[in-house]
Amino acid sequence: MSEAHKEPRWERRKQDRPQELLAAALQLFVERGFAATRLEDVAARAGVSKGTLYLYFDSKESLFKSVVRSNMLPLLDEAEAMVERHAGSSAELLRQLILRWWDAVAHSGLSGITKLMMAESGNFPELARFYHAEIIMRSDAMLVRILQTGMASGEFRQVDAESMKKVIIAPVVMLMLWDQSFGPCAISPIDPHAYLASLVDLCIHGLKQTPAVQADHNK
Asked: Do both 128 and 198 map to the same domain?
């Protein structure tokens, strides 16, 4: 691109500001929690004035929702697409979903958002309803679909899918909380991949149909 057609530096900076504000907000929400994070601190970390922040976000609540949407919805979209196109073993799909989700969350620091929601939802019910509607319900639906598909094919034994999804999710949530609470202090460190491999192994063996029943189903 010629010098005459290059975008002015200040224009590029202006276009980058929403993402810079979201990145700064994610860091501070994870470090301090929702209640203790101040908009002026978010603005300062992003290198702008508080007034500039208000050009893009009219409240701390709207900023938090944008942080969650910009970081977590793409991960959910990708996971749902993976579930949609999968045509093989439900057990293998469950394994891939859990391991890939953790890798994405761990590398982005999003486990801190889970800790924040667990700790502060009672004080901010509107945020709790938002997070449940846009994140938890979609995650739950994916797991239920995998379980129901596995049961329908005879790969999994018949279980209560609504209850089983919580049994599967709970250890993953525990790992995220541990990662954010005890992890930084190096207290009883957990190898996340070994932990999740054990979880997946336990879940799959608990769900697997017995060979005799599976053979009858395939007749």
From this structure: yes
